[in-house]
Amino acid sequence: MMKNLLFLAPLLVFQWVVGQSDQDTLPKAEVFTTMQSVNIDGRTIYLTAQAGTFEVRDEQNKPLALMGHTYYSKGDKREAATRRRPIVFAYNGGPGSSSYWLHMGILGPRRIVVNDPEYTPAAPYQIVNNNFSILDVADLVMIDPVGTGLSVPLGKAEFKDFWGVDQDIKSLSLFIRQFLIANDRMNSPKYLLGESYGTFRNAGLMNRLLKDGIALNGVIMVSAVFDLRTLLFPPEDDLPYIVHFPTYAATAWYHDMIPDKPEDLYAFLDDVRKFTEEEYTPALFKGDRLSAEEKEAMAAKLGAYTGTDPGYWMKANLRVTNGEFFAEFLRDKGEIVGRLDSRFTGINQDLLAQEGSHDPQSSAISPAYTAGFLDYLYRELNVDKNLHYATSAYEREGFKWDWKHVGNERWGTQAAINTGVDLAEAMSRDPYVKVLILNGIYDIATVFYGVEHSINHLGLTPEIRDHIIMKYYEAGHMMYTHPPSMAQFKKDVAEFIRETSR
User: Fold this and answer.
1) What is the model's pTM?
2) Which InterPro entries does the annotation name (predicted)?
3) For the segment 89-107, what is each residue's pLDDT rounded down to a tens digit?
């Protein structure tokens, strides 16, 4: 026995040395600290800003990833922990987007000024004090998921290990838990704030965190989606056509394409909802059993509500995808409308195209956001200029998302892409958590009627259902590019945090 131990000892020492060497060669977390301030409603708030990376470890305590983030805290670490100041973890979506849109659009101490709903000219861009920041009511952690920003895998982990619904939820839950511990914030009121796919992530992440013993005070959903059927237009599925129709009608209202246009947008949308539920949905459900007369009558109504030719709806068999609507709606004017925000229009270079060629809203604002944020990151937050910031995971070779999600399986295969089940479970098992959902009326990327449908099919008790608060904005997916909506966004989110953190 002693002989065997003596024989193994050199091998064990060799393995330890090699392992130690591997650890030493791993890139290290780096944080760049600066002092920042923001003036909100005449009050100056002084902040410590820490931008850089945080080492996340797996359940076996092995290095898993460097997670890029920017952490804004009021006062020093000890003071923040003592005051129990709320802390918000925020991110954008994609999947595959870094979080500079929310960072520089509405949440952080600086914001980019864009010409909503027109195109913003090239630099110099305006980077101004953000009077609509939430930093007067909470500390803020902007997170870039692995593959975006400065976030990269460590050790044996690869990018593909993070690129999926469940993989993404797991890595962010580990980051949040370990970040809270490292910064003495475990007893602070805690919030998630996600936009677009970030809301899909939110639903799964709030459930995962709860199972790990971390109850949230609130979850904020910006331009939400929980059931991807509402966006994907699957074959022989009428649901996405149904939930998109009210947004098509809202777009027609905005662009004055409706004869005798009603003055009240919200009353108009109530009428459209009623028509969609009581007439359009039953007509689609009949399928090929719908008579020619019934079909023509329905096409006439669809055309009237959307300012389009009834003949187009006849050719489309009463079913128009969002991409088809982008191209058709303003075809006679030689324009297309925006996917993220249908108030924006752009040039249609192919008047025979079946689908829109690009998103005018994205083209109108992306250069300003990208250049403005990178200037702020490297110049004001003092991040090392040698560190590459990936604005999107599409910069990484082989980016591909795994859409499988635990809880979506039936008969041994994936039957859905839906984290609404997680949202329902988390809210039912934590009857105190509240959810704020912010909807852009002109958002054709994640349509408001789709969110309403999902919420109405979660199977929640009335008491829990009342914990979901819906707000609407006369803007699009990024409603914070619209100045009036920017002010409303701040008011709604700040009130939500104050009321749920008492």
Assistant:
1) 0.94
2) AB_hydrolase_fold, Peptidase_S10
3) 999 999 999 999 999 999 9
